[in-house]
Amino acid sequence: MPGQALADNDYDVEVDGATVATLVTPGRTTYWVNGLIPGVHRVRLVKRTESPWATSAFGGFVATPGGAILGKPAPRHRQIEFI
């Protein structure tokens, strides 16, 4: 499963609640998560930094052959943001 990020920022890649990688390479990056057992997995991309001089864009997830991207979860009723 790859994810593509175009950025001057750092990201954590989480699978099933555990961080499996930290992406610290600026520019267009593709990262593959390998070794997952068959089944449903929860994937989360966490932006770790802010870049005052550049914006970032996340290109999305792609499933490997035989896999599938499921629909997004229902929105949360409440959310708190700390700055």
How would you characterize this protein structure?
The protein has about 80 residues and is an all-beta fold. About 0% of the residues lie in helices and about 40% in strands. The protein contains no helices and 6 strands. A 3-stranded antiparallel beta sheet has the order 4-1-6, with no helix packed on it. A 3-stranded antiparallel beta sheet has the order 3-2-5, with no helix packed on it. The radius of gyration is 14 Å and the shape is globular.
Overview in brief:
Helix content is 0%, strand content 40%. It has strands spanning 2-7, 11-15, 18-23, 27-32, 43-47, 57-61.
What structural keywords apply?
single chain; 83 residues; mainly beta; three-stranded antiparallel sheet; 6 strands; globular
Q: Could you give the topology of this structure?
A:
Blueprint: E1 2-7, E2 11-15, E3 18-23, E4 27-32, E5 43-47, E6 57-61
Antiparallel strand pairs: 1-4, 1-6, 2-3, 2-5
Shape: globular
**Terminal Cα span:** 31 Å
Specify the structural class.
mainly beta
Gyration radius (Cα, Å) is 14 Å
Helix/strand order, N-terminal first: EEEEEE
Biggest beta-sheet profile: 3 strands, antiparallel
SS elements, strand count: 6
How much beta, percentage-wise?
35-45%
Spans with pLDDT under 50 lasting ≥5 residues?
A: none
Overall residue-averaged pLDDT value: 81
Assign a percent range to the helix content. Answer: under 10%
Task: Output the strand order for the largest sheet.
Answer: 4-1-6
Enumerate how many helices there are, as a single number: 0
